[in-house]
């Protein structure tokens, strides 16, 4: 069942972090291959010829692309431990809805916070916080989005926490002041080894973003 597992990834990628967390939660040993996105490897181009993007999960020589699909695949293949998606079809549909919401809103809105200035940035910050508040509402008083245990939505969202500090520094605002419950949830997730070991240091992410700002000429 386990077979050979390889992950083609790039360390600051919140999408790759999802797959790292899922593999860690399941206790799956795998080979990590860091990609240089300016000089993509032959293996990456061969394994993801459509999008040519990381992360790519390779299981027994067969590629699985797109992070949320990878997390679901990991949950289905290694279904004997640490379930990430609920067994109830309706609850599973709700989890997929919120994971899709995170993909459609949080990445783009967060990117706009560090890529823009002035009025455009103010709008981006407002929209970003509004989306986080919707997620906070869905979390409610639960320990995790998955209830008592880390679940699919937690795995989809918590990688962004490693980028929050950079968003705050670039946008000069506090996420915790606006969404205290969400930050408390993130801190809870960070107490789990599977999460803590899969997320890079927030200062390193901030340095990476400053480097990207220079490349894009956003000063």
From TrEMBL:
Q: Where in the cell is it found?
A: Cytoplasm, Cytosol
GST N-terminal domain residues: 3-82
Keyword Transcription among record annotations: no
Tell me any Pfam family this protein matches: GST_C
The organism's superkingdom is given as Eukaryota
- Has keyword Transferase? yes
**An individual GO BP term:** glutathione metabolic process
GST C-terminal domain span: 88-208
A GO CC annotation recorded here is: cytosol
Which CDD domains does the protein's record reference?
GST_C_Tau (cd03185), GST_N_Tau (cd03058)
The protein's GO terms of the molecular function aspect are:
glutathione transferase activity
Please state the Enzyme Commission number of this protein.
2.5.1.18
Q: Which reaction does it catalyse?
A: RX + glutathione = an S-substituted glutathione + a halide anion + H(+)
Keywords attached to this Swiss-Prot or TrEMBL record, sorted alphabetically, are:
Cytoplasm, Detoxification, Transferase
**Where does it primarily localize?**
cytoplasm
Family per similarity comment: Belongs to the GST superfamily. Tau family.
UniProt name for this protein = glutathione transferase
Please name the source species.
Answer: Hibiscus syriacus (Rose of Sharon)
């Amino acid at each position: 069942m386990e077979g050979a597992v390889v992950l083609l990834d790039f360390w600051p990628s919140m999408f790759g972090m999802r797959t790292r967390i899922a593999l860690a939660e399941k206790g799956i040993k795998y080979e990590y291959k860091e990609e240089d996105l300016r000089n993509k490897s032959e293996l990456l181009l061969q394994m993801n010829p459509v999008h040519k993007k990381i992360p790519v999960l390779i299981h027994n020589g067969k590629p699985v692309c797109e992070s949320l699909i990878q997390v679901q695949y990991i949950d289905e293949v290694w279904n004997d431990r640490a379930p990430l998606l609920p067994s109830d079809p309706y609850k599973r549909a709700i989890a997929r809805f919120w994971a899709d919401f995170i993909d459609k809103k949080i990445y783009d809105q967060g990117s706009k916070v560090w890529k823009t200035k002035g009025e455009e940035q103010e709008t981006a910050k407002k929209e970003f916080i509004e989306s986080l508040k919707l997620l906070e509402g869905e979390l409610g008083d639960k320990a995790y989005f998955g209830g008592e245990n880390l679940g699919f939505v937690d795995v989809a969202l918590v990688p962004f926490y490693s980028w929050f500090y950079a968003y705050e520094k670039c946008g000069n605002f506090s996420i915790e002041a606006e969404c205290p419950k969400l930050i408390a949830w993130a801190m809870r997730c960070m107490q789990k080894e599977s999460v803590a070991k899969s997320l890079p240091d927030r200062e390193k992410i901030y340095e990476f973003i400053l480097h990207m700002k220079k490349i894009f000429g956003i000063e």
